[in-house]
Amino acid sequence: MVFLLWFAPAVAQPVPCKGSDLASAKAAQVDAQNTLKAALNFLHGNDSKTKQLVKRWFGRNDQATIDQVVSVLARTSDWVGKVSLYCLYANDGSLVESTTAPDGSIVLRDTAGNTFAYVDPGDLTKINLGLAFFNAPATGTDGKLGAIIHEVTHFFLTGNTDDIRYGRDDCLRLAGQDPDSALKNADSYEYFIEDWLA
Questions:
Q1: Which cofactor(s) does the record list (predicted)?
Q2: What residues are paired with 117 via a beta bridge?
Q3: DSSP secondary structure string, 110-163?
Q4: Contact assessment for residue 144 and residue 24, using Cβ atoms and an 8 Å cutoff
Q5: CA–CA gap between residue 165 and residue 151 (Å, rounded)
């Protein structure tokens, strides 16, 4: 009788962030939660500045649009502080060659260190952070705070957003051309919050 042993190739998995990286990511997480709470108060004010900012990033500023933005950001605020932070590299600073999403459907390679972050929308427990996240500023355009908000809006129970468009210019065009898609675009929420904070 012959026994065949088969071993699946080892795929590096994200590891819980530690040390200064964990402290940096936790600070961004706390900043995101505090900023979301303040922004929700701003949105409830429903003044001309609110309507102008909503129109800029979501293409419309009617009450239904404002309510949709409030709904996504409120659910995001509820979850942002509850997720664990994972790094796409070993805690000695070396890059992880590849990693798969928890459901096994996505393979990421971060050999150049330019992966920012990703989540599995069905797993409300974690955000996976790449080296680009740690090289970003704490706040401002494409900062750590905005990245955390962007990722948490992807969860099925928060905003179920997609990555329809990336970058400020493409998101502004999306708002002008397709407001319904802007309301489903994660970067649109990130830039709305970053603009509000500025």
A1: Zn(2+)
A2: 129
A3: -TTS---EE--TT-TTEEEE-HHHHHS-SSSTT-HHHHHHHHHHTSTTTT--B-
A4: yes
A5: 14
